[in-house]
Design goal:
43% of the residues lie in helices and 16% in strands. The chain has helices at 3-17, 29-34, 41-50, 62-71, 94-103, 117-121, 132-138, 150-159, 173-176, 180-188, 205-208, 217-226, 241-247, 270-279, 290-302, and strands at residues 19-24, 37-39, 55-59, 76-78, 108-112, 125-127, 143-147, 164-167, 195-199, 213-214, 231-235, 252-254. It has 15 helices and twelve strands. It has a four-stranded parallel sheet with strand order 2-1-3-4, sandwiched between helices. The protein folds into three domains: 3-84 and 265-279, Rossmann fold; 89-171, Rossmann fold (3-Layer(aba) Sandwich); 178-259, NadA-like (Rossmann fold), CATH 3.40.50. Helix 1 (3-17) runs parallel beside helix 14 and helix 3 (41-50) packs parallel to helix 4. The protein is of the alpha/beta class. It binds 1,3-dihydroxyacetonephosphate and iron/sulfur cluster. 1,3-dihydroxyacetonephosphate binds next to loops.
Amino acid sequence: MDDSYLQASLIELKKQRNALILAHNYQNNEIQEVADHVGDSLALSRLAAEASEDVIVFCGVHFMAESAALLSPGKTVLLPAADAGCPLADMATPDMVKEWRRRYPRATVVAYINSSAAVKAESDICCTSANVIQVLRSLPDKEIIFLPDQNLGAYAASQVPEKTIHLWPGYCPVHHQVEVHEVLAAKKLAPSSEVEVLAHPECRPVILTHADFVGSTTRIIEQAGRSKARHFVILTEKGVLYELKKRYPEKHFYFPAKDLVCPDMKRISLQQIVTTLQEMKPVISVPEPVCSRARRALERMLNL
Ligand code: 13P
Ligand code: SF4
């Protein structure tokens, strides 16, 4: 079926089901085009919490749909590709969190939103890449266990030196692979020296020393608009290019030679969204008692 037919079916189904389509900045272009809202993890969590529709179709990965389900009880949350996971989120389990708590009994556990609901349930508060510094500063305790991303944790530790942060050894396979020589080569692609490097904090600390700006996917997109520069090296997943080109057609964007593509984020197609709404599955839900405990950690973050 062609895209225009699928788009027309989708409009019809959305009305029938009273559904809202949320999409992450890394989704395929045709998904970003049909979504009601496109954003970073923080914005999408807020939108899910405030949604008035009966159904939320979450175009992202499993932990994001799970967070939407936690924050919008009573609604049906659908994830069009049931196998869209996050290898970073899989690097922490509830048993591991319990073990780290035994090792550091006085520490507060901060879980990056890129974690399962079961891990969130064992944590004190969540954060995203957009609010990690605000979350850490809000905590009365000095000692923190930060999980599961060592790079985001190291970046946050550099910004909040008054805290003692125990870093979990997880990493995002997409961002962790960026090399310094690739950043320098991408900078050379710009015709002038007036080039800014915008990086996601999931990149390694050595990469962030080459960045002019560090932030979440949405903050990167906003910074490209705010900056006077016309050329940008973008150090995050390539899906952000859709919005960057749409908003700033006069600006130029360069990526490292190694393709920064998250295969899990690319699993959803337009056809799958249509099928999901027709069949009303796969539904993402979180059973009790995990649900209440994980929600508490997420709401503590959103209430800041
Ligand atoms: P953002 O929260 O910045 O959108 O990033 C989510 C993510 O999965 C980054 O790899
Ligand atoms: Fe997970 Fe990395 Fe993909 Fe983000 S880009 S969803 S952290 S694997």
